[in-house]
Amino acid sequence: MSGSRAAIRYAKAVLSLATDQKAAEAVNSDMKHITEAIAQSVELNQMLQSPVVRSSDKKEVLLSVFKNANTNTTNLIDTLISNKRLALLNDVAVSYTRLYDQLRGRQVATVTTAVPLTNDLRTKVLAKVKELTGKEAEVKNIIDESILGGFVLRVGDIQYNASISNKLDKLKREFTLN
Protein backbone atom coordinates (compact mmCIF):
# COMPACT_ATOMS: atom_id res chain seq x y z
CA MET A 1 0.00 0.00 0.00
CA SER A 2 2.83 2.42 0.76
CA GLY A 3 4.12 1.95 -2.78
CA SER A 4 0.71 2.86 -4.10
CA ARG A 5 0.53 5.98 -1.94
CA ALA A 6 4.02 6.97 -3.05
CA ALA A 7 3.02 6.50 -6.70
CA ILE A 8 0.01 8.76 -6.20
CA ARG A 9 2.18 11.43 -4.56
CA TYR A 10 4.65 11.37 -7.46
CA ALA A 11 1.75 11.47 -9.95
CA LYS A 12 0.16 14.46 -8.19
CA ALA A 13 3.47 16.32 -8.18
CA VAL A 14 4.07 15.70 -11.88
CA LEU A 15 0.48 16.64 -12.75
CA SER A 16 0.75 19.88 -10.79
CA LEU A 17 4.03 20.78 -12.47
CA ALA A 18 2.81 19.79 -15.94
CA THR A 19 -0.42 21.75 -15.49
CA ASP A 20 1.54 24.86 -14.48
CA GLN A 21 3.70 24.47 -17.58
CA LYS A 22 0.66 23.75 -19.82
CA ALA A 23 2.10 20.32 -20.67
CA ALA A 24 -0.38 18.08 -18.86
CA GLU A 25 -1.81 16.61 -22.10
CA ALA A 26 1.66 15.78 -23.46
CA VAL A 27 2.69 14.16 -20.17
CA ASN A 28 -0.58 12.19 -20.11
CA SER A 29 0.25 10.88 -23.56
CA ASP A 30 3.70 9.87 -22.29
CA MET A 31 2.19 8.12 -19.27
CA LYS A 32 -0.19 6.13 -21.46
CA HIS A 33 2.75 5.18 -23.68
CA ILE A 34 4.74 4.06 -20.61
CA THR A 35 1.93 1.86 -19.25
CA GLU A 36 1.38 0.29 -22.68
CA ALA A 37 5.09 -0.38 -23.17
CA ILE A 38 5.48 -1.96 -19.72
CA ALA A 39 2.33 -4.07 -20.20
CA GLN A 40 3.52 -5.31 -23.60
CA SER A 41 7.15 -5.98 -22.67
CA VAL A 42 7.88 -8.51 -19.95
CA GLU A 43 11.60 -7.70 -20.30
CA LEU A 44 11.06 -3.98 -19.70
CA ASN A 45 8.95 -4.69 -16.61
CA GLN A 46 11.53 -7.14 -15.25
CA MET A 47 14.32 -4.65 -15.86
CA LEU A 48 12.45 -1.94 -13.93
CA GLN A 49 11.80 -4.28 -10.99
CA SER A 50 15.29 -5.81 -10.92
CA PRO A 51 17.64 -4.69 -8.14
CA VAL A 52 20.55 -6.21 -10.09
CA VAL A 53 20.37 -3.87 -13.11
CA ARG A 54 22.23 -0.61 -12.47
CA SER A 55 20.20 2.59 -12.35
CA SER A 56 22.33 4.13 -15.09
CA ASP A 57 21.48 1.21 -17.39
CA LYS A 58 17.78 1.51 -16.57
CA LYS A 59 17.88 5.23 -17.32
CA GLU A 60 19.66 4.64 -20.62
CA VAL A 61 17.07 2.06 -21.69
CA LEU A 62 14.11 4.22 -20.64
CA LEU A 63 15.44 7.32 -22.39
CA SER A 64 16.02 5.34 -25.58
CA VAL A 65 12.56 3.71 -25.45
CA PHE A 66 10.82 7.01 -24.62
CA LYS A 67 13.12 9.33 -26.55
CA ASN A 68 10.34 11.75 -27.58
CA ALA A 69 9.02 12.13 -24.03
CA ASN A 70 8.16 15.50 -22.53
CA THR A 71 10.76 17.11 -20.24
CA ASN A 72 8.48 16.56 -17.24
CA THR A 73 8.39 12.83 -17.99
CA THR A 74 12.17 12.55 -18.27
CA ASN A 75 12.51 14.58 -15.05
CA LEU A 76 10.13 12.13 -13.36
CA ILE A 77 12.31 9.23 -14.48
CA ASP A 78 15.40 11.02 -13.12
CA THR A 79 13.66 11.72 -9.82
CA LEU A 80 12.50 8.11 -9.45
CA ILE A 81 16.04 6.90 -10.16
CA SER A 82 17.65 9.29 -7.67
CA ASN A 83 15.10 8.29 -5.00
CA LYS A 84 15.56 4.58 -5.82
CA ARG A 85 11.86 4.30 -6.68
CA LEU A 86 12.04 3.45 -10.39
CA ALA A 87 10.08 0.25 -9.77
CA LEU A 88 7.07 2.55 -9.20
CA LEU A 89 7.18 3.98 -12.73
CA ASN A 90 4.20 1.98 -14.00
CA ASP A 91 2.14 2.76 -10.88
CA VAL A 92 2.99 6.45 -11.18
CA ALA A 93 1.98 6.45 -14.85
CA VAL A 94 -1.34 4.73 -14.09
CA SER A 95 -2.03 7.13 -11.20
CA TYR A 96 -1.15 10.15 -13.34
CA THR A 97 -3.56 9.09 -16.08
CA ARG A 98 -6.34 8.51 -13.53
CA LEU A 99 -5.72 11.90 -11.87
CA TYR A 100 -5.54 13.64 -15.24
CA ASP A 101 -8.85 12.11 -16.30
CA GLN A 102 -10.46 13.18 -13.01
CA LEU A 103 -9.15 16.70 -13.53
CA ARG A 104 -10.66 16.79 -17.02
CA GLY A 105 -13.95 15.20 -15.91
CA ARG A 106 -13.33 11.98 -17.85
CA GLN A 107 -13.42 8.43 -16.65
CA VAL A 108 -12.94 4.90 -17.90
CA ALA A 109 -15.89 2.55 -17.98
CA THR A 110 -14.79 -1.08 -17.94
CA VAL A 111 -17.27 -3.42 -19.60
CA THR A 112 -16.66 -7.14 -19.22
CA THR A 113 -18.48 -9.25 -21.80
CA ALA A 114 -18.30 -12.79 -23.12
CA VAL A 115 -17.84 -11.51 -26.70
CA PRO A 116 -16.39 -8.24 -28.06
CA LEU A 117 -18.63 -5.16 -27.87
CA THR A 118 -20.28 -3.99 -31.07
CA ASN A 119 -20.19 -0.29 -31.97
CA ASP A 120 -23.92 0.01 -31.31
CA LEU A 121 -23.59 -1.50 -27.84
CA ARG A 122 -20.52 0.65 -27.12
CA THR A 123 -22.58 3.77 -27.92
CA LYS A 124 -25.38 2.59 -25.59
CA VAL A 125 -22.88 1.94 -22.78
CA LEU A 126 -21.39 5.42 -23.17
CA ALA A 127 -24.87 6.97 -23.01
CA LYS A 128 -25.72 4.98 -19.86
CA VAL A 129 -22.46 5.96 -18.17
CA LYS A 130 -23.09 9.63 -19.02
CA GLU A 131 -26.61 9.31 -17.57
CA LEU A 132 -25.38 7.63 -14.36
CA THR A 133 -22.35 9.79 -13.63
CA GLY A 134 -22.83 12.97 -15.65
CA LYS A 135 -19.31 12.61 -17.05
CA GLU A 136 -17.85 11.59 -20.39
CA ALA A 137 -16.25 8.17 -20.41
CA GLU A 138 -13.95 6.00 -22.43
CA VAL A 139 -15.03 2.39 -22.80
CA LYS A 140 -12.55 -0.40 -22.13
CA ASN A 141 -13.84 -3.82 -23.14
CA ILE A 142 -12.58 -6.91 -21.32
CA ILE A 143 -13.56 -10.26 -22.76
CA ASP A 144 -14.21 -12.99 -20.18
CA GLU A 145 -16.03 -16.05 -21.47
CA SER A 146 -16.67 -17.27 -17.92
CA ILE A 147 -19.51 -14.76 -17.49
CA LEU A 148 -21.37 -16.75 -20.18
CA GLY A 149 -23.39 -13.76 -21.42
CA GLY A 150 -24.62 -10.33 -20.41
CA PHE A 151 -22.10 -7.84 -19.06
CA VAL A 152 -20.43 -6.37 -16.00
CA LEU A 153 -20.10 -2.57 -16.06
CA ARG A 154 -17.65 -0.85 -13.73
CA VAL A 155 -17.22 2.93 -13.54
CA GLY A 156 -15.11 4.19 -10.67
CA ASP A 157 -16.66 2.71 -7.51
CA ILE A 158 -19.92 1.74 -9.21
CA GLN A 159 -20.38 -1.81 -10.48
CA TYR A 160 -23.42 -3.21 -12.23
CA ASN A 161 -23.37 -6.97 -12.78
CA ALA A 162 -25.85 -8.18 -15.42
CA SER A 163 -23.95 -11.32 -16.31
CA ILE A 164 -25.60 -14.69 -16.80
CA SER A 165 -23.12 -16.33 -14.43
CA ASN A 166 -24.15 -13.85 -11.69
CA LYS A 167 -27.83 -14.64 -12.26
CA LEU A 168 -27.11 -18.38 -12.12
CA ASP A 169 -25.21 -17.91 -8.86
CA LYS A 170 -28.18 -16.02 -7.38
CA LEU A 171 -30.53 -18.84 -8.40
CA LYS A 172 -28.18 -21.42 -6.90
CA ARG A 173 -28.08 -19.51 -3.59
CA GLU A 174 -31.89 -19.26 -3.53
CA PHE A 175 -32.29 -23.00 -4.05
CA THR A 176 -29.70 -23.86 -1.39
CA LEU A 177 -31.39 -21.57 1.16
CA ASN A 178 -34.85 -23.13 0.66
Please characterize this protein's 3D structure.
The chain is an alpha+beta fold. It folds into 2 domains: 2-102, N-terminal domain of the delta subunit of the F1F0-ATP synthase (Peroxidase, domain 1, Orthogonal Bundle); 106-177, no CATH class. Helices cover 63% and strands 16% of the residues. The protein has helices at residues 2-20, 24-40, 42-49, 55-65, 71-82, 89-104, 119-133, 164-177, and strands at 106-113, 136-143, 150-155, 158-163. A 4-stranded mixed sheet has the order 2-1-3-4, sandwiched between helices. α2 crosses α6. The longest helix has 19 residues, at 2-20. The radius of gyration is 20 Å and the shape is elongated. The mean pLDDT is 88.
Task: Outline the secondary-structure elements.
Blueprint: H1 2-20, H2 24-40, H3 42-49, H4 55-65, H5 71-82, H6 89-104, E1 106-113, H7 119-133, E2 136-143, E3 150-155, E4 158-163, H8 164-177
Parallel strand pairs: 1-2
Antiparallel strand pairs: 1-3, 3-4
Helix pairs in contact: 1-6, 2-3, 2-6, 4-5
